[in-house]
Design goal:
With 374 residues, the chain is mostly helical. It is built from 16 helices and two strands. Helix 3 runs antiparallel to helix 4.
């Protein structure tokens, strides 16, 4: 939410192309993959609260460091460090939700959690874009780092201790047994494949959407902020509703309809014609925010249900590592497909949309084969 809306500014300030910019996006995902994978074997041995707070401290320091860098490669390194801790934060959040809420109420809880991304779009992205225009690209990093520090203090006092999974040690495997168990468990293995495919059908489009709107369609910083504000505001309303629909009708059904809608808006978003009216552009992008963000709720509900609580933290760490690998791969592949035209415009974005649509269809097929056990 910091880097992607500022793609044009990073490319101009550091004199880099789409490929290098995709590194800046994918390095976060890559290090999150490594950290989540490394923690999968031991994270269930700790209080969820303690693990969350330690990871959050690292994320905060890494974000502040990004804002203090003065070269592309130094920023790239700090983004990687931040991603390692950020991946652990995301893992613990999902594990806490999975432990605290039973499966019949988990969809609503996931909808509430995902609303945080909507709030980031409504409030954070416009502020970040304006801060970058006023004080340079480092200002949003420093601002988020300060906010992260404040919320870390709040979490220290407000997040309860969660140790129930530690007491249930009879079925907890060793590190080697856990990885072997996932490899042998077709349901869990399928959940990881589903995670990768979903990322390829979602995140390949996202890193370049802001740059495409500005460079190809001529959208100003103010209109780009408006795009994120409107899309985010709509998802603030839609995500809790989608969570309730998941609890009522089931995650596979809601995911299927959400994916159909997402495919339509992906193809529309990646093929917007030059000269299109701003109102129509905002309508299409708002539909993209609602549809693509909405299907994440049933997807997470499906994945958290394939493992028992006592092993959920480790599996969700493994799932997070796979998810981050999928994000990194999606961003990297998109960066390889997209090239700069003679006037600096992005070419072949429509091809990325086709790739995302094909992966979305495959994700629907996999979603119906997942079985919830807890």
């Amino acid at each position: 939410m910091i880097v992607m809306p500022l793609g044009e500014k990073f490319m101009a300030d550091f004199n880099i192309g789409p490929s290098e910019f995709s590194w800046l996006v994918s390095v976060y995902a890559g290090t999150a993959f490594v950290a989540s994978l490394a923690s999968a074997g031991f994270v269930d041995r700790f209080d969820r609260r303690s693990a969350l707070l330690v990871a959050h401290v690292g994320f905060t320091i890494g974000t502040l460091a990004c804002g203090l860098m003065d070269s592309f490669y130094a920023l790239l390194i700090c983004r990687g460090i931040t991603g390692a801790f950020g991946g652990l934060v995301a893992t613990q959040v999902l594990a806490i939700v999975g432990d605290y809420f039973p499966i019949e109420r988990r969809g609503r809880a996931m909808g509430a959690i995902m609303t945080a991304f909507s709030v980031a779009s409504v409030i954070g992205v416009p502020i970040g874009i304006n801060l970058a225009a006023w004080k340079g690209w480092s200002a949003p990093f420093l601002g988020v780092g300060i906010l992260a520090a404040l919320f870390g203090i709040l979490a220290f006092f407000q997040v309860p201790s969660l140790r129930g999974h530690i007491a249930s040690t009879s079925d907890r495997p060793s590190v080697t047994e856990m990885f072997a168990g996932v490899a042998k468990n077709s349901n869990q293995r399928l959940a990881l494949i589903f995670t990768v495919v979903l990322m390829l059908g979602h995140f390949s489009v996202i890193p370049f959407i802001a740059t495409y709107m500005q460079v190809n369609l001529g959208m100003s910083d103010g209109n780009l902020s408006l795009m994120y504000m409107i899309g985010g505001a709509l998802t603030v309303v839609s995500l809790p509703i989608i969570g309730k629909l998941v609890d009522r009708f089931g995650a596979p059904q809601v995911f299927t309809y959400g994916s159909i809608a997402t495919i339509v808006v992906i193809l529309a978003t990646t093929n917007l014609p030059v000269g299109m009216a701003l109102g129509l552009i905002l309508f299409v992008t708002s539909c993209f925010f609602v549809a693509s963000g909405g299907r994440t709720v049933p997807a997470l509900t499906l994945v958290t249900g394939v493992v028992k609580p006592e092993n959920r933290g480790g599996f969700m760490s493994l799932r997070a590592s796979v998810n981050q690998a999928g994000m990194g791969a999606a961003s990297f592949i998109a960066g390889m497909i997209i090239v700069e035209g003679p006037n600096g415009e992005l070419l072949h974005y429509g091809t990325v949309g086709i790739l995302a649509s094909v992966m979305s269809v495959l994700a629907v097929f996999l979603a119906w084969r997942l079985k919830a056990i807890a």
